[in-house]
Fold these 2 entries.
Entry 1:
Amino acid sequence: MERIKQKYYFKSVTAIQIVGIMLVIANIIGIDRVLISNILFLVGLVAICLMIIDILLGAHLLAGWFKHKKKGETDDEYQQAKINVREVGSIKNQPIRFSKFGKSALIIGVTYIVLSIIITV
């Protein structure tokens, strides 16, 4: 259980999934099926988009921008301020990492999309 808590936000994800299941139960009681399915699907898509944004924020996309020689800068100053290509390459070649937020958003998104598909079947 402790390992699961380290990987994603267990209590928050569980509470949000319970809200989704309550919406499915409300659907069974008699609330509009298409409306609840659309809401669950859109919330699932938003959660997956948040996961993608979280991954891209940690991807080091802006690492290693080329610095041009400034006006009046000597060659020695330019060489000292120059970017080390090997460091930038090692940063950019790191594997993709999921944070706890990204994993939690993925679980919520997939759960809500599956629930919306189950409702409409």
Note: The chain has six helices and no strands.
Entry 2:
Amino acid sequence: MDKLLDKGMALGISLGGGFIATRLFDFVWKKATGDDAPRVANDEMTLKRALAFSIGSAVVSAAVQVLSQRGASSTVKKMRSKFGAGSEV
């Protein structure tokens, strides 16, 4: 049961964190470059800018994934200690 709860919490945390991280990354991109964040590849975008965007978004995505898994695991452990070792949580 713990693994199912752990995965469900990780999913919820990653969806929320991903939404917030995407908005934050778009804001930083707009402030740094003056342009909106690219949503589809186009021929007008330079290779340097396309690589910078793809690397930045990959870093943000990986960080959200790791932090959500750790946060979910930590939350499940806290719940287990609060409700006792024999609980279903």
Note: The chain has two helices and no strands.
